[in-house]
Every structure is written in structure tokens, then in C-alpha cells.
Write a structure and sequence with these properties.
350 residues, 8-stranded mixed beta sheet, elongated, binds iron/sulfur cluster
């Protein structure tokens, strides 16, 4: 289906099924379209309607909004959420009220607080009849499915492709109706779940529909790969007494203030420290690496056991340290991997 057919089918459908009764469609002046577009961000049409009516009754023009105190604007916004929208709208109204005319280009609109390229496109196409593409959530979903666009829509490459598609499908004529039609299609039929494909005016050309891919598009946000950090935990033990040498970690940072085995990022650092402390590196027992997962990263740590025959010789200057006896020193806070290691090594009889 080419762009022309797409536009015609969509506009025919809009003529029959478009939601022309919506209050912001009655007098599509730039200010009113702007207010509606800001309110509709992340918010359902049915929720917005009463807020829009009250808001525009109290602030019928950009000048009345500009001269109102912010508290009153926020009060009328109460319950709609995302209050930065109201603050930006108010601030932008003050700027616009000081201009000779309502801004009528994408660049001028995008220079105002809270207006992005899609909102600018909606204002310009609906209120000024300019041929400008838009890409709000509904339009994005329609285009992704219609053209079976792969990849997460938040990805810059996919975003670029979608703007190109939106630009290509936007007609020269009836642009205000087309913009509202494609938004309506996304909201009424091409919904996130259970879309009404059977009633869709562009179904014959929809690649996702014919490829059986409607349920999998748009692609979800990819799961973030959690980075991994390697480290070595030096487990110095007094083999006869089953004591473990622990140091208190600095207050800030990982395991801040807890008692832990000394941690090193390099194998060579472990060996160097051991030599300094009179421990023969050849006596070290390197256990298999283990993983402990934090919210933002994995800690892949290798326990390195250093059993001492004569721990009295161990000199640790300037560090808060102690010999920890498993099961007896419950008053100390230990990170979970350290507790687990101590339990395991105690059972192994070191
Ligand atoms: Fe969306 Fe279904 Fe229409 Fe395709 S056929 S555009 S998936 S509603």
C-alpha cells in the first residue's frame, strides 16, 4: 500500500469514525491545541477531557494563562500528574504572551519549555494546516506495525526511521484531519494490546498483520546488560583457631562500614600484599570465581585462602581490623558473600 492509499483509507475512516466531538477539536486554535497536546502526553483522552474543559474555561487564552499565578495553574492540574508539564506550560505561556504572534515554526515552538518536535508538529498541522509530521506514542505504534519496523523505538536508529516514515506518510492536503486520524487509529484500533485489526482501514497493507507479528511489535525495551566487575577477596585465616581476618570497609562505597575480607582488583596485588605481610604466595589457595549481583553490576570475586601458621606475625597498620570467629562474633555486620564464605570454609575445616 503506497502513501497515497494509506492517507485516503485513513481519512475515509476518520470521516466516519474520527472523534470529532473532542473539546479541543471544536476550535482548533494554536493555544487550545497546544494545551490539549500537553495534557494528552502520557494521559488517556477520557481523563483529559474534564481537565481540559476546566482549564480552558479558566484560561481561555494564552494571556490569561500567562498572567495567572503558578499555584492556580497547578491547582487546576491536580490529579493529572506529571506536574512539570503544567510548570512548563505556564512558563511557555509567559514567553508566548510577550511575542507578537503565536510561534508558527517547528524551531520556534521547540524553543519553548515543554514542547518537543512531535508536539510542535501536532500544533502546526492541526492549528496552522502546515504539512508537519508527528510521532507521538500512538503514531509510533501504527507506523511500526504497518511497516513491521524492528528494534526498540527508543533506539536512535529506529527513531530516525520512524520520523522518515511519518514524514513520507503525511499528506499535503487535509493535513489537520490526517494528523488527528492517525492519532485516533493508534488510540482506537491499533492499541497496545488486543488491536482491532479486523476493523482497521489500512489492514490490507499492514506488514505486521500479514506477517503475524502484531503481538511482538513494537519491540520492547531491551533488557540492560549489567556490567561485571572482577575482584579478589583475600581470606587470611588462623587455621588452628578457625579465625578469619576482616577489615572494616570505608563508610562510603560498596559494603560501606561492613567488615569484609580485604579486596583487591588484581591477582598481582594479592600476591604483592601477601609478600609484604610475610605470606608466601605459593601457599595461597585460589578458589573458583563466584558471582554476587548488585542492582547495577555483578561482582565476580575469587576467594584466595591464605592459611597462617603464626598469625601473630601479621602486621596491619592504620587499618581497623579484627580476627573474626564464626558463630561467636554476631555483633559485626558482614556482607552476605563474606558470611557465606566463612560458613563454607568453617565447615570445610579450612
Ligand atoms: Fe495496527 Fe492491526 Fe491496523 Fe496493522 S492492521 S495498523 S496492527 S490495527
Amino acid at each position: 500500500m503506497n502513501a497515497k492509499e494509506f492517507q485516503e483509507k485513513l481519512l475515509d475512516w476518520f470521516d466516519q469514525h474520527g472523534r470529532k466531538e473532542l473539546p479541543w477539536r471544536q476550535q482548533p486554535a494554536p493555544y487550545r491545541v497546544w494545551v490539549s497536546e500537553i495534557m494528552l502526553q502520557q494521559t488517556r483522552v477520557s481523563t483529559v477531557i474534564p481537565y481540559y474543559q476546566k482549564f480552558t474555561a479558566r484560561f481561555p487564552a494564552v494571556e490569561t494563562l500567562a498572567s495567572a499565578p503558578l499555584d492556580e495553574v497547578l491547582h487546576l492540574w491536580s490529579g493529572l500528574g506529571y506536574y512539570a508539564r503544567a510548570r512548563n506550560l505556564h512558563e511557555a505561556a509567559r514567553i508566548v504572551a510577550g511575542l507578537r504572534a503565536f510561534p508558527s515554526s517547528v524551531d520556534d515552538l521547540c524553543a519553548l519549555p515543554g514542547i518537543g518536535k512531535s508536539t510542535a508538529g501536532a500544533i502546526l498541522s492541526i492549528a496552522f494546516g502546515q504539512r508537519q509530521p508527528i510521532l507521538d506514542g500512538n503514531v509510533r505504534r501504527v507506523l511500526i506495525r504497518f511497516q513491521a519496523v524492528d528494534g526498540w523505538p527508543g533506539d536512535a536508529r529506529v527513531e530516525r526511521e520512524l520520523w522518515q516514515l511519518s514524514e513520507a506518510y503525511t499528506p499535503k492536503k487535509r493535513v489537520a484531519d490526517y494528523t488527528q486520524a492517525i492519532m485516533d487509529l493508534g488510540a482506537a484500533l491499533c492499541t497496545r494490546s488486543q488491536p482491532g485489526c479486523r476493523r482497521c482501514p489500512v489492514q490490507t497493507g499492514c506488514r505486521a498483520f500479514h506477517g503475524g507479528r502484531v503481538g511482538e511489535l513494537p519491540a520492547p525495551r531491551p533488557k540492560k546488560r549489567i556490567p561485571a566487575r572482577k575482584s579478589f577477596l583475600l581470606v587470611i585465616t588462623d587455621a588452628r583457631e578457625q579465625l578469619f581476618y576482616l577489615e572494616r570497609r570505608p563508610a562510603g562505597g560498596l559494603w560501606g562500614g561492613l567488615w569484609s575480607f580485604p579486596e583487591y582488583s588484581e591477582k598481582a596485588e594479592v600476591e604483592y600484599t601477601c609478600r609484604l605481610r610475610g605470606i608466601d604466595p605459593l601457599s595461597l589457595r585460589w578458589l573458583p570465581e563466584r558471582r554476587h549481583t548488585f542492582t547495577h553490576f555483578h561482582l565476580d570475586y575469587t576467594p584466595v585462602v591464605a592459611p597462617l601458621e603464626n598469625p601473630i606475625n601479621l602486621v596491619m597498620e592504620g587499618i581497623r581490623s579484627l580476627w573474626y570467629k564464626a558463630g561467636l562474633d554476631e555483633r559485626y555486620g558482614l556482607p552476605a558473600p563474606v558470611t557465606r564464605l566463612i560458613a563454607q570454609l568453617s565447615n570445610d575445616k579450612l
